[in-house]
Each structure stands twice: as C-alpha cells, then as structure tokens.
From TrEMBL:
Belongs to the adenylate kinase family. InterPro entries: Adenyl_kin_sub, Adenylat/UMP-CMP_kin, Adenylat_kinase_CS, P-loop_NTPase. It comes from Streptococcus porcorum. Transmembrane segments: none annotated. Pathway: Purine metabolism; AMP biosynthesis via salvage pathway; AMP from ADP: step 1/1. This is Adenylate kinase. Catalyzes the reversible transfer of the terminal phosphate group between ATP and AMP. Plays an important role in cellular energy homeostasis and in adenine nucleotide metabolism. Monomer.
Length: 213
C-alpha cells in the first residue's frame, strides 16, 4: 500500500498518520525524518542538504526530490509500502514524485486528504495560550485553565495569534490546492471530513484505504 496524506496545519494529519501506520503496517516517511536520516548516513543528497542547511539556505527542490528518491529506493519500502507525509509541498515536487515513482516502478494507490474548513482551523490553532510563570500550555476552547483565570497571567506566541495563523493557512492553501487537483485528476484523492472526533476521522480513513486493496 503506497499512500500520501495531506491536510492543512491543525487538521490532525500527524495523529491520523500514526494510526494509519499502526493499523496498516506501512512505513511512515516524513520530510523531517528523511532529511535527518540522509544527513546522518551521509548519503549523496544528505551531504548536499547539510551544506545548504548549515549556511541557513533553503534546500532546493532537486535535493529534496533526491532525498525522497533515495528513501523510496530502500528495501523496506518495497516490502511494506509507504505513507508519505509532508511531501510534495509544491506542484513541481508533485511532478518530480510522479517521475520518481514511475522510474522505480511504484504505484501510488491513494491520497488521503483530511479536509476541514480553514475558519475552524484558525480557532484550533490560535487558541493556544501559555502560562507566564509555569510555561504550561492551555487552549482557550479545548483545554482551558481553571474557571475564572486571569488573562494577564497568560501570553500567546506570535505564531499562534489569529493573524499569523490565517496567513500561514492561506500560504498552505495556495500551495496545496494545485497538488490536490493534480492527484484528483488521477482519481487518487479520498476526501476525509476532518471536523469530527479523532476516532470518526480514522474510521473514514480506514474505509477509504480498505477499499484500495
């Protein structure tokens, strides 16, 4: 089983990816893990990536694509299949992945797209507050402090403020929509309603994946 998982920040992609890996036994391939492993193992692409990262530069697409290709060539992928998480991030990377999979003789069987209205994600992502004295993290809606708490005792990181969250989501939507449409045209996308309980979301994902077998 070879899958991609997609979803906006806050949609619960990480939680569901872990459940998919546990249930279906595929290899979870995340961008961060790939980069760390490639650099630690000093692969050709890992060495190139480290050179850019050490200088504080963005890793170019050709290096990122190369690191993905190196990972997909490994034996455990052929044996168990994969769940690719965090890649592709651009339509150019999606085209590169198509070429890589074709060269390796690997079929992508499905794209799990956890879909949720961005306005609800703003609430999820901008509700985090941090206690000034203890550093303990709370959420205004989902995990509030004790009733009657003093707002002055808490602060919010700049990245968690609604304006910052909205900008981040807008960027992700602009980048992600062409990728979704690219795979939708191939008949691979399975839209999953993300505004449900975690177990309900996973139940829908299970049905979608089981239908691919």
């Amino acid at each position: 089983m070879n899958l991609l998982i997609m979803g906006l920040p806050g949609a619960g992609k990480g939680t569901q990816a872990a459940k998919i890996v546990e249930e279906f036994g595929v290899i979870h391939i995340s961008t961060g893990d790939m980069f760390r492993a490639a650099m630690a193992n000093q692969t050709e692409m890992g060495i190139l990536a480290k050179g850019f990262i050490d200088k504080g530069d963005l890793v170019p697409d050709e290096v990122t694509n190369g690191i993905v290709r190196e990972r997909l060539e490994q034996a455990d992928i052929k044996e168990k299949g994969f769940l690719l998480d965090g890649y592709p991030r651009t339509i150019e990377q999606a085209h590169a992945l198509d070429e890589t999979l074709a060269k390796l003789g690997i079929n992508l069987q499905g794209v799990i797209n956890i879909d949720i209205d961005s306005s609800k994600l703003v609430e999820r992502l901008s509700g985090r507050i941090i206690h000034r004295e203890t550093g303990e993290t709370f959420h205004k809606v989902f995990n509030p402090p004790a009733e009657g708490y003093n707002e002055a005792d808490f602060y919010q990181r700049e990245d968690d403020k609604p304006e910052s969250v909205k900008r981040r989501l807008e960027v992700n939507i602009a980048q992600g929509q062409p990728i979704i449409e690219h795979y939708r045209a191939k008949g691979l996308v399975h839209d999953i309603e993300g505004d449900q309980e975690i177990t309900a979301v996973f139940s829908d994902i299970e049905k979608a994946i089981s239908g691919l077998k």
